[in-house]
Amino acid sequence: MWYLNDERTLMRDATRDFVDQEVRPKALEIDRADRFPMELFKRAGELGLLGITVPEQYGGLGSDYTTLAIVMEEIAKASPVLCVAMGAHSQLAGGMLRMLGTEEQKQRYLVPAATGEIILACGSTESAGGADHEEHSTRAVLDGDEWVINGGKVLISNIGVADVYIVLAITADHVDPVTKTGFSAFIVPADTPGLEIGSAEHKLGWHGSATGSISFRDMRLPKDAILGPQDGCMQAMFVSATDEFLTCGPVGLGIAEGAYEMAFTYSMQRVQHGQPMYDRFQVTRHKLAHMWMDIEELRGLVYSVHAERDAGDLQLAQGRMLKIRGSEISERVARDAIQLYGGLGTIVETGVERYWRDAKVLAIGGASVEAMQEEITQLLKAPAGAH
Ligand SMILES: Cc1cc2nc3c(=O)[nH]c(=O)nc-3n(C[C@H](O)[C@H](O)[C@H](O)COP(=O)(O)OP(=O)(O)OC[C@H]3O[C@@H](n4cnc5c(N)ncnc54)[C@H](O)[C@@H]3O)c2cc1C
């Protein structure tokens, strides 16, 4: 592959070993038990996979986004949910710490996060307004030397297992609807009095990603718990969200490959009228050919966009494009894989329907593809170079 070099090949092979020996054997059990894959998350930390793009001075590998994509693709072939937990930790919350943290905050939170010693979550979404932050109601008010926060967040990944939450709250009297100035980010340790952590929701897919609500009742934080400039965290949130959207490309690619490999193997093994399905039915072969073409198209897109990210040439719209294409293609390929399995495709124990459930949630979790399309239209309208 054109995007592989010696270093990336080493990383891909090490991740494949981790996936084959430790992740794949547990993936179905994690889905069925709907449990956070704690032992795999911690192992990923030991292997450096939680700090791939974190600079070495903060305990990371200091590697590039293409390497991150390669790792995400390999893991998603077996366990998309592990990628989701890693993305919320490393890209969303970790990205905010990287961009906005003071040196002391980075040493205290980013360094242990890069190795998985602590787990991070990022709380932005609220029950009113969804991704449209203007209607949010969580507020932080300065009272002497402390911030007092009231409100709540919904659908937050890694709840209950996170040691630290990065939380967005309104700190200004007025939120600018265009620039979103008026929001600040805060570092909230999980044991902060006034922080209430709900239980994980039972979802269609991404079982085990521990998604749920947190609320704040007169939650007091020291003044220096603010992350970045007062009223001005949204630019960084936009960038860290873009990095998370980017990972939906390789995660979608891994999901599609996992489903395709199962369907291809099954079509060779399942005998119909004395012949393997693959040889017997042209429609089976053609369906598999379309699935393969979808996968290779997505691969080309994922790695060319990541090459631009690494070269510093990424357009923000491209991050959103990967979120959309990663979800669409993985959903289509996973749906066809179920179809090729016939009745067995509907049986949970077979393991193939899980890919479709995880692909479906990929189209909503973190941001809906419709909101992504809308953002692309806004970015394309912006002055040249801004998107
Ligand atoms: C499994 C999972 C994990 C998540 N993890 C996190 C997390 O870690 N942190 C966090 O802060 N949030 C998280 N979220 C929340 C996620 O970002 C939101 O669910 C998502 O942005 C959609 O917002 P909403 O659920 O409020 O739906 P709504 O905003 O109510 O949207 C409903 C539908 O309306 C349409 N729509 C909405 N907005 C637009 C728009 N601008 N343009 C066009 N159509 C639109 C879309 O069809 C959308 O599906 C997670 C969600 C899920 C499902």
Element pattern in H and E:
HHHHHEEEEEEEEHEEHHHHH
The CATH architecture of the largest domain can be given as Up-down Bundle
Q: Tell me about the largest β-sheet.
A: 4 strands, mixed
Name of the CATH class of the largest domain: Mainly Alpha
Average pLDDT confidence is 95
Q: What share of the residues lie within helices?
A: 40-55%
Salient structural properties:
four-stranded antiparallel sheet; four-stranded mixed sheet; 14% strand; Butyryl-CoA Dehydrogenase, subunit A, domain 3; binds flavin-adenine dinucleotide; globular; Butyryl-CoA Dehydrogenase, subunit A, domain 2; alpha+beta; 10 strands
Tell me what you see in this structure.
This protein is α+β, with helices and mostly antiparallel strands. It folds into three domains: 6-119, Acyl-CoA dehydrogenase/oxidase, N-terminal domain (Butyryl-Coa Dehydrogenase, subunit A, domain 1, Orthogonal Bundle), CATH 1.10.540.10; 121-231, Beta Barrel (Butyryl-CoA Dehydrogenase, subunit A, domain 2); 235-381, Butyryl-CoA Dehydrogenase, subunit A, domain 3 (Up-down Bundle). It has helices at 6-33, 38-46, 65-78, 80-100, 103-114, 234-269, 277-280, 282-311, 316-340, 353-362, 369-381; strands spanning 120-123, 139-143, 146-156, 164-170, 183-189, 195-197, 212-222, 226-227, 271-272, 275-276. The strands form three sheets. Strands 1-4-5-8 form a four-stranded mixed sheet, covered by helices on one side. A four-stranded antiparallel sheet has the order 2-3-7-6, with no helix packed on it. The mean pLDDT is 95. It binds flavin-adenine dinucleotide. Flavin-adenine dinucleotide (FAD) binds at residues 88, 122-125, 130-131, 155-157, 203, 206, 209, 211, 361, 364-368, 370-371, 374. The site of flavin-adenine dinucleotide (FAD) has 23 residues, from β1, β3 and α11.
